[in-house]
Every structure is written in C-alpha cells, then in structure tokens.
Amino acid sequence: MDIFEFSNEDSDETPGIVIDNGTDTMKLGFVGDDAPRCVFPTVVGRVENLTRFLLELQPKTLFVGEDALSKKGRRTIYCPIKRGIIEEWDNMVEVWEHSFKNEIRVYPSEHPILMTESLDNPKVNREKTCQILFETFKVPSFYLVPQQVLQLCAYGMTSGCLINLGITSNCCCILDSKIMKNSCLRCSVEAGGITELLKELLAMRGYQFTTRLELDYLKDLKEKYSYCLTNNIPETISAIENKSQIREYEMFNGGCVRFGKERFLAPELFFRSRKQILEMSNLLTNNCKGINSNFQEMEREKEKEKEKEKEKEKEKEKEKEKEKEKENENENEKEIEKNTRIKSYSTLPKMIYQSIISISEEKQKQVFENIVISGGSSLFEGLQERLQKEVKSFWAENAPEVKVHAIPERKYATWIGGSIFASLKSMKNKWMTKEEYNENGSSFVHIKCNDCL
Ligand SMILES: Nc1ncnc2c1ncn2[C@@H]1O[C@H](COP(=O)(O)OP(=O)(O)OP(=O)(O)O)[C@@H](O)[C@H]1O
Ligand SMILES: [Mg+2]
C-alpha cells in the first residue's frame, strides 16, 4: 500500500463517503476531509405494542441515534452492533438509512462507500453488508476495510501493533500493510466494564445511577474525569491525600457527585482484576497508614501471577507449535478461515505483548516501537505512558524499546484513516463496482476487499 501517494486528479466524480460502523457511535463523512461530519449513537428506538388509536396520535414509531435516546416517550432501544459485529440487520439498515437521509444528506446511489469492519467480522457478515449496500442502497461502488488497517493509515505507518479501544478492545500486528492473523487478539475488558465498575465504586459512596439519563451522566463523568495511574504507589497515596484530586460533578437534577479515588480505580481495570481493584479501594478507604506495604504486597502478588502466567503461556505456545505442525499438513486442503473467534486476554498489556510475540522474532523490535492506540477509550489520560511501562515490564532485563503512539485525534483515527485510505491513488482500481457485484455476487467482496488481509 503506497500510503503517501494520493490521487491528484481533480475529479468531477462525486466524493466517496467513509462510514465507520462503531458499536457505540457511527462516524460519517466525505473522503478527503480531516474529521467525520456526523457522529451519532448506533441505536434504534422502536415504539412497540401501540394500539391503533395511539398510532394515529403519534404515527412515528421508529427513531435512530440521538432521537432514539431522547427521553420522551416509551420505546425499546436496540443496539444493532454487538462487540463490533453487526447482529441486528433490520436495525442496522435503519441506521444506514438515517445516516444517508438525515445525517450526511446524500443519495447513496451517487457516492462510492467505504465502510469499516471489525477484525473478526464473519465472512457472512461481509457478504450481507455488501449485498445490502448494492441492493438496498444501490451504491455505485463499495469497499470494506478492517479498522486496524485504517488506524495504521491515520498514524502514517506501514507496520505496527494497532490497538482499538472503542467499546471493544482488540488489537493486531500489521507488517508492511498485511495483518498477521495470529496476532489478532481481544482483551476481555471493555469500555462498558469500566463504566460499570465506576458505577459500583460510586455506589459505595452512596451515589446511585440507574435511569438512562443518570447512566448518560455517568458515562460523561467517566470521560471527563477518569485517568490511568502512571505510577502505582506514590500517585495512589497522593491521590487520596491531595484535595486537588477530588472532583465535583453536577448532575441534571442539581445534585452533586464528589469523588476522588474512583477517577483512577475504574480504568485500572485495563491492568488488573476487578477483585484487586475493590481490594485497592478498601485499602484506600480504611487504611491510609501502612498503605505502602499493603500495595507493595499486592504488587508482589501481581508479579508472581505474571510469572505463573508466563510459564503457562510458554507451555501453551509449545502445544500450539505442535498443533500448528499438524495443521500445516492439511493446510492446502483447508480454506483459511479468517473468521474464527479471536483469543481473549484479561489485561491490555498482556494482549499487546502476546500479539507482538506471535509474529516473527526479527520483526518484533520494529513493532514494539510502533504500538498505536485509537478509539474513544484510548483517551484516558495517562494510558499511553502506563501501557508503555507495563509492556516493558514483561522483561526483567534487556527489554526492547517500547513506544506507544497516541495522536490527539485518535478518537476518530479509524474514520480519519478511512478518509486517507480512500484518497490514495491505488484506491482507484480497488473499489468493488455495481457491475462486478451484478456479475459475481456478494462473495466477490472477499476477493476485492482483501488486499490487507
Ligand atoms: N475522553 C474519554 N475518556 C475515556 N473514554 C472515552 C472518552 N471519550 C469517549 N470515551 C469512550 O469511548 C467509547 C466509544 O469509543 P468509540 O467511539 O471509539 O467506540 P466505537 O467505535 O463505537 O466502538 P467499537 O470500535 O468497539 O465498535 C465509549 O465507551 C466512551 O465512553
Ligand atoms: Mg470503533
């Protein structure tokens, strides 16, 4: 992929549209723009079980995005994308329809559409997306790209370890623009888990968040005030002793949420178990004196756990090697299935480390220096620094250079990368056209949209 060679034709063609299908939010805009023009929640609200009488009074029964979440009226809320994968197709079609009609306001039949997909998007989903875009929306041409490939473009790199932190947390290594299949991993900690933990921690202070509106405020509070510890022990103590760490958040009803340690305890879930965090919370509440020794004990335990897990991983690797040898024997007979479920790890550093050591040894150094974070949940202050330290801590000595990159625009890195990707000269012949679809059907998507896999 010649990522720096842009198309310089002054085209009078209609501009392409980039659509980043997010579990949480849709991002849409024109190819060549610096940022998406429309961002809205990926939700559909349906008013169900209405009598005829009520239907006559309020004929509109379907709402998308912000409208679906507005508090007026009773409706069932549907989230068509679950963990990055489209699961409710009727609702997704409504989201796309709304995108074209009310958000970006274009006729899809007049614009090439580039869409993003999750690393483990099943083949059937790729085909279905393609079919809907050509048949329902009558697009002239279409392209589908894994989010990580676009994130790489946004960072102007051709190799690296790409970490998507949206609602889902997943990563892969890309070498010379090719995704390394074995390096595609997930982390079981997701944005919803962090919000849920924050809710639990704040409940211990007596604050309840239950209604949809309250939960919206909780999410906002998380986004505004949470941060990742960059230095475990000293910062933790200063965080509770130093009044400047306390924040006050005003609620819609005039109430006020006052909180301190919860700011860093919730995102700590990226690095340790919920149980350990609740223990930390108790220590901080009850036992400020002697806290250092308690933390040091916890740290030692964490180290021991790490050691044990490393041993286990080594064993697993050996087994895997054996299995691989067996598999290789049959490889030519089998079609390589891109979409087997990808393996999940319990913390972000583990996921990153495992992903990178799955690639060939001589390439690892380069990738350890090119770790990239993208997505809304990558915005936690301190995350970049903490990840850098934790990934490095997998080595007792002779650690390679570890560098985590984080551009300010990383929340929209996938979309921005899509805008760059679709502007490349090389893209001109890549689009899957309506004619190709009519001739070959939806499975052609795997042939056309496959250059990065
Ligand atoms: N400043 C912030 N600090 C921490 N988290 C944030 C911040 N801003 C947004 N988020 C979180 O980012 C998440 C949404 O990120 P994003 O829009 O990248 O997800 P998505 O693309 O819809 O999901 P996915 O890529 O997993 O399908 C939400 O959980 C939101 O609370
Ligand atoms: Mg995303």
Automatic annotation (TrEMBL):
Top-level taxon in the UniProt lineage: Eukaryota
Transmembrane segments: none
Gene3D superfamilies: 3.30.420.40, Actin, Chain A, domain 4
Biased composition (Basic and acidic residues): 297-337
Span list, region Disordered: 296-337
SUPFAM superfamilies listed in its UniProt record: Actin-like ATPase domain
Sequence similarity: Belongs to the actin family.
The name this protein goes by in its record: Actin-7-related
